Amino acid sequence: MTEGTLGRIVSGPPDGGDRGGHIAFASLTRTERLPLTELYRRSGLVAHWLRDRHGIRPGDRIGILAANGPEWVLLDLAALRIGAETAGFEPGKFSPDSRLADRYGLRVLFTDRPAAGTPGAVPMAAAGAVTVPMAETETEAVTVPMTEVTAVAAQPGEGPPLPPAGWDPKSVTTVKFTSGSTGEPKGLGATAGSVDSSLRAVQQIFHHGPGDDLFVFLPLSLLQQRYWVYSALLYGHDVTVSTYEAAFAALRRVRPTVVMGVPAFFETAKRQMENRLRRSGATDGQALRDAGRAVFGDRIRYLWTGSAPASPGMLRFLTDAGLPIYEGYGLNETCIVTKNHPGAHREGSVGQVLPGKEVLIGPDGVVGVRSDHPVNDHYAYAAPGDSEKMFRPGGIVRTGDLGHLDEDGFLFIHGRADDVIVLDNGKKVVVRPVEEALRADPAVAECVVFCPGQTELVAVVSPAAVPADRTAISVHLERTNARLAADERISRAVVADEPFSIGNGLLTSQYKPRRARILDAYRAAVHDPSEGIHAR
Asked: What is the rounded distance in angstroms from the CA atom of residue 499 to the CA atom of residue 204?
């Protein structure tokens, strides 16, 4: 792919020195800012080190298991420059041990975690390289602390020119993993062609360029987060990399023009803005816009959301605050499929189909996607039969989502086919609209609806605060039921002991509820008719 986006990335950053854009790394208290030209120079040093010190060659795979930071970006770019694959592992979901290296065929694992399962394991910030044997090979995977990457990148000079790394459209650049809402995450090899196609399609509708600063904070193990670093190198805009924990503190400092986030993040932002409005006592439009600037800064061009359903109330609230927010749709297995944008936006939809994608609605109402440049046609790592369920003949990915296309090609998603509840009277209930209605109250952060015994609908509610405002939840339950059809009404709401979170295992890294785990945690209450807040 010498003429594609990856070919342009590995050949150098945009021309123009500092005018070619910057990358910033923002923590809670400080921001480190580098010209993209300097980032590219440092990635060359790391690329030489990977090749000369660790023997990494085109087609070899390195693993990265670490929090967001400069070293993550440098390793990823360095691998691209020498034609090596990466595998991004989310901290907390994976452990740096011999099984990881063995299962995923790693030559080197870079981590900021303690090396689990290795003799005399110590925190990696203080450790040297630890050799981890790989089964059935004559080589050994080496676990290397990220601090070594820091030291290499700090050296002066550039080293000799690297041989060009040609990326064929069907070459796998990275192994990415599902968010893992159920079971072990599936591993999927993402092709260079799919990366190239997505970057070009997004640029056609949003026109990112000098003056823009794209703010990303979800884990870099998620390939789409790395897209925005690639976009900066291609189109000369700025990009800021942070973490979820530091995001709100960094936003006010960085003042980005674009924020990429999941709905749960923007719901939190909405609550912060509402708190500011309550404290000020003001209710006019100017006060709302001021609250938005206090949270996001004063340069927002638009907000980007996806990966999970966004509530209409949140989308309208932020747009009314002068923060236009555009919802989109895609899966790991498809990349970005549809996107609302300034030139084409329809409320309630997830946008029009992007160039290079085709959406097909099956006879059962399930959305299928065909791509000019597929992510892949099978999982690299999954349970037997999983690939066949997702990847269908004719290059179609069966998403499992129910939806329809309107006359103008806007896609509307109604819920998961697996989340259709069949009651004992034969009526079918799609739970997503019910859950969205229950979430539309400040007292409710998240909820999941279950159907014990096929006789009643029971919601497990994640409270927005602790202690939960049970009175507000009860009032909202009554109001919601009054607007729902008889078969859709919630009989009880079980209030979770603590809010769903990544830490307690009830949310994925993209802040989607883990339905099976939530049911396991609250099974007794869901099945006990005496538990919960009862609808009147």
From this structure: 39
Q: d(Cα 26, Cα 213) in Å, to the nearest integer?
A: 13
Q: Is residue 59 part of a domain?
A: yes
Q: What is the DSSP string of 214-230?
A: EEE-S-TTSHHHHHHHH
pLDDT (mean) for 482-505: 91
- Indicate whether 84 and 164 sit together in one domain: yes
Hey, what are 311's tokens? 């509530």
- CA gap 305, 160 in Å, rounded: 42
- Asked if residue 17 has pLDDT above 60, the reply is no
User: Is 84 found in the same domain as 185?
Assistant: yes
Q: What are 455's two structure tokens?
A: 């006789």
> Is the domain of 398 the same as that of 499?
no
Encode pLDDT of 424-475 as tens digits.
878 888 888 888 889 888 899 999 999 987 788 999 999 998 999 999 999 9
- pLDDT tens for residues 47-67? 999 999 999 999 999 999 999
DSSP string, 296-328: H-S---EEEE-SS---HHHHHHHHHTT--EEEE
242 lies in a domain? Answer: no
User: Which pTM value belongs to this model?
Assistant: 0.84
Residues 6+ apart with CB under 8 A from 321: 273, 288, 289, 291, 292
Residue 211 lies in a domain: no
What's the rounded Cα separation, in Å, for the pair 151 and 153? 6
pLDDT given at position 144:
92
For the chain, the domain total comes to: 3
Domain that holds residue 93: 5-19+35-116+133-191
10 Å CB burial of residue 280 (0-12, 13-18, 19+) is exposed
Are both 431 and 381 inside the same structural domain? no
What is the per-residue DSSP string for 90-101? -BTTB--SHHHH
> For residue 316, is it within any domain?
no
Pair (369, 429) in one structural domain: no
Q: What is the pLDDT of residue 136?
A: 40
